[in-house]
Amino acid sequence: MKMIRVGIFGLGRFGTALVKTLNQHEDSRLQIHIRAVDKDPDRVDAVKNICDDALIMDLEDEELLQSHIENLDVIIITIGENALPVLLLAHTAMEMIANQNDGSFEKPRIMCRAHDGTTRKILRKFGVEERDIFAPEDKAAERLARRLVHRNSVDSLPLKDDQAIIQITVPVEWIGKTLAETKIRNRFQVNLLCLQRATEDENIISPDPDTEFHEADQLYLLGSIKNLEKISAGEDS
Q1: Is residue 152 one of the residues assigned to a domain?
Q2: Which residues span the domain enclosing 68?
Q3: Which of 58, 143, 184, 217 is the Cys-Cys partner for 170 at CB 3.0 to 4.6 Å?
Q4: Are residues 181 and 66 part of one domain?
Q5: CB-based contact 86:112 (threshold 8 Å)
Q6: Is residue 176 domain-shared with residue 59, that is, in the same domain?
Q7: What pLDDT is attached to residue 67?
C-alpha cells in the first residue's frame, strides 16, 4: 500500500474541510498520513480525532515550521486570514527544499492558497507551480456563475472510486505524434478529454484523431486510476 504524508497548515473552514475529506477517502491502495497545524487550540482540537498529528503552532515561527515540514510528501498551505503567513511558510518550505536537495530525498509538492493576484505572482516567483496555487472563493464564484448562466452545468463527474481525471504533461515519446498514432484509448482504455497548449492560449476539447502533440502540452485524461498511473509512470500498456 502506498502512503503519502500530507501537512495541512491552517485550519479555517477550508483547511478543516480538507482534513475531513482526506480522512474519509476510500482508495484502499492509498494510506494518507495527515498532519494538521494551526495556532488556534480550538481548531486543532476539532480535528485531532480524524488526523494522525494535530499540532498547535505559531505558523510565523520559521524555525519551528522547518521541523514540522520535514518528511512531508505534500505541503498544503490553506491559511485564509491574510497573505503574509502563506508567503512566509511557502518561502520557508522552498528554502528548506533547496538547501536539502542533494538527491537523497524526493522533493515534496507544495500547494498554496492565493489571496489575490499579487500573492499568486509572489508564490510563482518562489517556485510554486501554477497548478498548485488555488483560490477557493474564486472557484466557488466561478461555479455559481456557470450554474446561473448555464442551467445544466455540472462541477464534477459521477466517477467510481477507482476512476479519476488527471492532468499530466505530454510524455516525451508522444511529442510529434498524433492522438491516433499514440493509440492511448486502445492501449490504456483512457480518454483524452482536453489538451491545453503551453505556447498559446488554446484549449482543445475532445481532440480529434489527427491532433498532434506538442512539447509541454497539458493533457486531461479520464480513466481507471490503475491505467492512469501507468501513463504517469511512463509504462507501456
Answers
A1: no
A2: 2-143
A3: 217
A4: no
A5: yes
A6: no
A7: 81
The full DSSP string for the chain is: -EEEEEEEE--SHHHHHHHHHHHT---TTEEEEEEEEES-HHHHHHHTTSSSEEEE--TT-HHHHHHHHTT-SEEEE---S-HHHHHHHHHHHHHHHHHH-SSSSPPPEEEEE-SSHHHHHHHHHHT--GGGEE-HHHHHHHHHHHHHHSTT--SS----TTEEEEEEEPPGGGTT-BHHHHTHHHHH--EEEEEE-SSSS-EEES--TTPBP-TT-EEEEEEEHHHHHHHHTT---
Contact call for residues 122 and 86 (beta carbons, < 8 A): no
| Statement to judge: residues 123 and 61 lie in one domain | yes
Report the distance separating Cα 16 and Cα 9, nearest Å.
10
The whole-number mean pLDDT for each consecutive block of 10 residues of the chain, a chain of 237 residues, reads 92 96 82 95 97 90 80 92 86 82 72 93 94 90 86 84 91 96 95 90 92 95 93 80
* Residue (of 122, 75, 120) closest to 96 by Cα position: 75
pTM score above 0.85: no
The owner of cell 466561478 is 142
Query: Are 208 and 169 within one domain?
Result: yes
Does the residue 116 lie in any domain? yes
Structural domains counted in the chain: 2
Is 202 found in the same domain as 117?
no
- Quote the CA–CA distance of 40 and 185 in Å, as a whole number: 49
Give the CB-side neighbour count of residue 99, counting CA atoms within 13 A. Answer: 8
pLDDT of residue 102: 59
Closest CA to 92 of 124, 68, 121: 68
User: CA Rg, the chain, in Å?
Assistant: 20
